[in-house]
Design a protein that fits this description.
With 269 residues, the chain is α/β, with parallel strands linked by helices. It is built from 9 helices and 13 strands. The strands form 3 sheets. It has a 6-stranded mixed beta sheet, sandwiched between helices. It is globular and about 60 Å long.
Amino acid sequence: MRRWSISVFSALFAVLALSANAASAQDKTKIKVGVSVGNSEQTFEVVKRVAARDGLDIQIITFSDYLQPNEALAAGDLDANAFQHKPFLDSQIKTRGYKLTPVGLTITAPLGIYSKKYKTVDQLPQGASIGIQNDPSNGNRALLLLQKSGLIKLKPGVGENGVNATPLDVIENPKKLKLVELDAAQLPRSLDDLAAASINNDYAFKAGLSLQRDTIAVEDARGRYANLIVTRVEDKDKPWAKKLVKAYQSEEVRKFIEAEFKGSLVPAF
């Protein structure tokens, strides 16, 4: 009889524990989301208001670089992040082994080549120094934009289809441009010392640069570089993750992006 009672108690305890865990997963109402400083932070203030009406409390955590948000998410210090496009995420997963996955689209932030000295790519002099990002995904993106602008030519088969180009893949460089690889966050601060620089939209925005006013070349507004909401793989189907995506992809957020950023950011949903 005692053995039976212990068995029943153990089974009941296990069921209650499972039920508690399931309820906890279902009832999570507070999450931490990592974003880049600048326009992403602004947009998420609107997302936060929308999500609150659906019972989801978002704490916005800002980052000033592109490496920490994925590290923090993988370590469990964040529940989600929203700052990166798919090629960058794929590169991070490949090199660092993160168990992360996209759960929704946010915006496209067209990359620009910015200059304080020149108004067109044709004005760039021989031997001009051009800053590009030193991370594989955004560096590849910068080289593709330079190629699109007629400034360089890359080896066939690199730069697209997941094969990241590097300065070593440049096979034609008529102006003998000097490609200076720097951390993405340093590029706006280095612009005074360069003829031009490839700068990501959020860092440009923070530095007071305008995509319309200060660029000599710009990516297409819609393409493979749409940004994402990302979670850990085990969280991708959680109710709070669905609420987060729903809040971001709301009409209220769409209208805010279109009105506030006037084409420098484009809703990708």
